[in-house]
User: Fold these one by one.
Assistant:
Number 1:
Amino acid sequence: MKLFSFPQAMLEKAIAKRLLSLAPPQRAWFAERWQQKPYKKAFIERKAMPLVMLVAKGKTWDDATFDATLQEWDVRFHEAEAAVLRPLVEGDGLLQLMQKNLPAERAQRLLARLAERPEAPPQTL
């Protein structure tokens, strides 16, 4: 889902800044993974960039396009990942200009997507 080009360095800087303000358990969980290049690359490409694209393009897309793209975005977020990405939707730092004019209903749908947690697999004995 590469429909939007956004400076990756700026996004990484925003994520690193947000990492510092996480609660200690979330910070430890995310920092451990963020230091691993495969995780960092996958997180940026599969979770952060699509979210930025949905925020940026969500202002001008019609409902059908927005819904289809949101449905296509098949990812689940750990609680710490959602905490890191939530400010991208709510408005934080250098990215605030992108959130301007994003319809509140679409912002709420993006925040709800971040809040989804995968169901725990059934325990087997």
Number 2:
Amino acid sequence: MTVGRRSVAIVAALLLSVSVIMSPLGEAALDLSSLGHTWNGYALALAPTVPNMRDSHRLELARDNLPEGVRMHYVMGSSELSSLAPQNPVTWLPSHSSDFVVFLSGRGHVQSLSHAIELAAVAPLLASPKVTLILSPQWFVEGGVGAEAFMDVFSYSYFEAMLDNPLLSSRTKERILARVKSLGGPELWSRPDRAFESRLSVLRERLKTNIDLRRQSKSVPRAEARIDAVDWTREFQLAHDQGVAAAHNEFHVADPYYERYVKPNLATSKGSMADSTYLASPEYGDLDVFLTVAREVNVEVMLVSVPMNGWWYDYMGYSATGRAAYYDKIRDVAAAAGVRLADFSDKDYEPAFLYDIMHLGWKGWLSVTRACVEFESAA
């Protein structure tokens, strides 16, 4: 082969590689590793990890491989998804339900804006056009989500799919673009010369997801009983007993958490939130973006209002009056948007509802799971 022909062949091969990367064939090629593998949709729904949280492939596999007769409900949240309480759906549902599972999506730092982008991306893939968003009061600090925290969980895959969703208005897309830019997000999509870099990022996320899913594909045993056979009264009593037995301190948080995170900081924490508020935060704008996205992509939403730990917040100087004002504001947001609200704000002095000073615990997760069942079952 002459030098000229060799050069032409090399250029042709490069062009072919670029065309594959820039097209859906790129993801399809990576997904070939899934062929011939036996996937358990029920198990995949309950397996959120850092590698697979940035790509929709877990959702597609979970949806397409659900056992017959199983309903799946999409639940978005943040660090409470890793709660150690045995009522966390990861642990509780497989031993209590044969026909209902929640798809858990999120981790620490994933807040309203990240979930808005995600919702626009996954809406066409949902098994049911309903999602639940668990709101943490701590999201609504005066500064809102930090730039570093936002970029730590940023998904190129979801962002690209959000931009491609034809149901999302140009105005909403522009609003998201501006907010992402304000948090230091990449401007790859406004730079044609960097589109290739964007696609490489998407494919890297898909590759990491596929590798992770192969590792997380072990099946989990499922209970024989249906979810409507659960004795909720008995389960709540058990959750109460477990929570009370696990917390022997004035703040009613799990003892290991207390010893590691609370006790060493008691002196500096006392009265530290006397001048704080959760009423003025950019997070409310991000939440409005999420609710706008849901309306435009035709997805019903249930917001979950998680209570604060009343004993701990009293100690920090954030009064019951201040907390009530925040709870009222969340009610107003839900009412204005016309969305369902699972309101647990009256539980801030209830033992065993929270696992620690902020995360859902024994009775808290049980309450949220039951609310999800009722929401998914509602006409």
Number 3:
Amino acid sequence: AKAMIKLINKSFKEGNTNLNNTTCIEKVLRIVHVLWSNDQSSMKSTLVGENNLDFINSLTWILKVHLDDNNIKMVNEAMPLLKLTIEVAADSTLLGSLGLEFFKEIVRVLRKRALLSQQAIKSALCVLTETSTSGRNRTRIVEAGAVTELIELELEKPEKNMTELIFNLLALLCSCADGREQFLRHAAAIAVVSKRVLRVSAATDDRAIHVFSVIAKFSASNEVVLEMLRVGAVSKLCMLMQADCASYLKEKARDILRLHSKVWNNSPCIQLYLFTRHQR
């Protein structure tokens, strides 16, 4: 494993992109993946400290080079390995040293999703989730354009576990002002979040209500409040209060409805008792 990782890092440092080396690196990536599957503890002990950061930088370089030339095989090999490597670094300070270019490459993977494997896309979502624990990284992820790509990906109606990853990320990124701004710039953002409520899973409901909560509290212009009504978000909040779901979600929905009840309770679609009804 050490020899394989050293070879990948050497190619990065030398910037070696000739065809023979590319073919070699593709096979090396496969070998490392197999080794990781068979002996996780050994791989984790190999990738500590600077070795981990070097390998992250090398894999990011592989993504950049081969996203540029549409070498999909290399991206499909590199992305799952990058996910595993980031998970090893999850409890370290290394994640705080990741730059904007790193996040731009991960977002580019999402942008080229039509060409890539589902495993590569899920790996990209997991990488963004793992690295978004710090506010600094969240800002960089938003700056790289992740919120827009997450909404676009969700509009394609992905499978359940991918939707859960998307909504978890949206909730994290909308916790910062820049994330909410990018979210609201997308014409379908509020509508797609509203549509998924009560249709996917309890985890998705939780994250969707968190998104609506921070939007309603911190970014609720008159236009946004009216759009929430127009695209059915307010109706979904009312439905959630009557649904068979966790009591804390009902309370969150009630709190959101109370925030802008002066606007929403004039709608013929919303019955006034729904704003005040408590669970029996």
Number 4:
Amino acid sequence: MRDLTEAVQDYVGSEYYLFLDPALKEYAESLLHAWCEQIGDEVAPETVGQALKAVGTLGVPVDARKAFPDVLRDFFDFLKKT
């Protein structure tokens, strides 16, 4: 499996990111990096849930935190197609 933090960089340079809501772009990359750091080396249902909770506590606007599941879903779609 490819390194998730490298995948975030690829995602940020992709069309997926280009079409994100401009208000989310300001926070999407840092939220995805924080999520990846929380996941660590083992992507499992438990770590995914814990990482989502951790992202929810970051000091970013509430709207960005609420939209993060959509950003994450878009990121996963990107991963499936690469």
